[in-house]
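job 3f2a | input accepted
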Amino acid sequence: TINIARGLLFLNRASGSNGCLVFDLTADPWNPTLLFQTGISSSHACHDSYVGEDINGKDVLFVSDGGGRKERFYDITNVDSSWTIGQVPPQIGTGTQGFSGIYAHSGWLSEDKRYFFAFEEFNVADIFVHDVTDLENPVWITRFQYSQQGGANSNAIVHNGEIRGNYLYVAYYEAGLRVFDISNPYLPVEVGKVETHRDPNGDGNYEFGISNSYLGAWNTYPYLPSGNILVNDIDQGLYIARADPPYDAPA
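job 3f2a | predicted structure (251 res):
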C-alpha cells in the first residue's frame, strides 16, 4: 500500500527487511527519488504506515512493523527534497509495547493526536489503544474486539480502521464494517455495523458464517462530505452506508 503526505510517498512493503520506502514527489512525481527506508531487519517489515503532522511540533511517521509486533515512530519533520539520500530519520523512543504472537498490521491516530489505534491481523487481540501523548514513552491503555468476538462461530479477524470525530470505522473481514464510539478511548463501545459478508443482501438473513478467514470487509472510507461511509468487501464489492443519528454531522 502507499500513503502520500508532505510531498512524500510512503511505500509500505509488508515483507522483507527494507521497511517503508520513502520517496520525494516534489521534484519529479513521475520519477520520484528514494530518500530512505526504515527497515534494518526482518522485525522492521513495515506492513503499513501513518503520517501525523504537528504532533507536539513534530511530523511523525508511524510504522506498523508486522512481525516486529509493535508500532515504531520516526521524526520526519525535516525530511524534504533536500534530505540526505539514505539517511534514516531519528526514531522517537522505542515505539509501542510489543505483544507476543501478534502481527502489527496498521493503525490510525485520534483527531486530538493523543491516542493511536493499532490493528493486528493474527487474531490475537484485534485492536490495541496506545496513549502517545509522550512519543518517547507511549503507554498501552486497552485492547478490544468487536461485540460478538469469542462467541460460537464468531472469531473474526480485524483488518483496517480509520477515525472521524469520535468514531472508529473498522473493516473487520467476515464481521463486516464495525463502528465504535471512542469518545472514551479507555472504553470503546461498538455502536453500529454493516454485515457485508454474512448478510450481503441486507435482508437480515446470514448467508455465510465466520470462519477465522481473510474474507469480507477489507477497507473503509468515512470522509465523504455527505457523511456516507464506503466499505470495500473482498467478495461482494463496494457498499455505501449511511449512519443514523446521533452520528456527528460531517464537518
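job 3f2a | The chain has no helices and 18 strands.
job 3f2a | closed
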